[in-house]
Amino acid sequence: MKYRNILLVDDDTDETELFGMAIHALNLKINYSVENNALNALKTLQKLKKNPDMIFLDYHMPYLDGREFLKLLREVKGLEKTPVVLYSGHSGDLIKEVAAKFKKVKFMKKQNSLKDLTFSLKSILLPIEIRK
Predict the structure, then answer these.
(1) C-alpha angle with apex 115: 66 to 4, nearest 5 degrees?
(2) Residue range 51-63: mean pLDDT, rounded
(3) CATH code of the domain occupying 5-131
(4) pLDDT greater than 80 at residue 107
(5) Chain-centre distance of CA 112, in angstroms?
(6) How far apart are CA 69 and CA 59, in angstroms?
(7) What are the DSSP E strand ranges found in 1-132?
(8) pLDDT category, 81, cuts 50, 70, 90?
(9) DSSP state of 11
(10) What is the reported pTM?
(11) In what order do the strands lie in the sheet with 54-58?
């Protein structure tokens, strides 16, 4: 499995708690960290010695929205190709368009239940042959 270190950027504490429970429910050895501010997340990422394997990014964030964050992230050396999942409660075409404009960016709708979120994360984080 290639996704061992995940960063979640989301300002909603209920969402971050649910995300953590879903990661734990997958019963995989995944380390995840949370940044509740996109601007701080970008500053932290610029200083890290080991980059995350994947970033889950809430599209609607204060200070920097998803599009602005992605644009700046892709300018950081070593993070140009880091996979990002735009993680939003809205499944609007605008967000999907933003995901399509950047390389290695997918879209995932936020889920309201632990079961649904765990299923969605499993489909992103696990190769098809291991999901069964």
Answers:
(1) 60
(2) 90
(3) 3.40.50.2300
(4) yes
(5) 16
(6) 9
(7) 5-9, 31-35, 54-58, 84-88, 105-109
(8) confident
(9) S
(10) 0.88
(11) 31-35, 5-9, 54-58, 84-88, 105-109
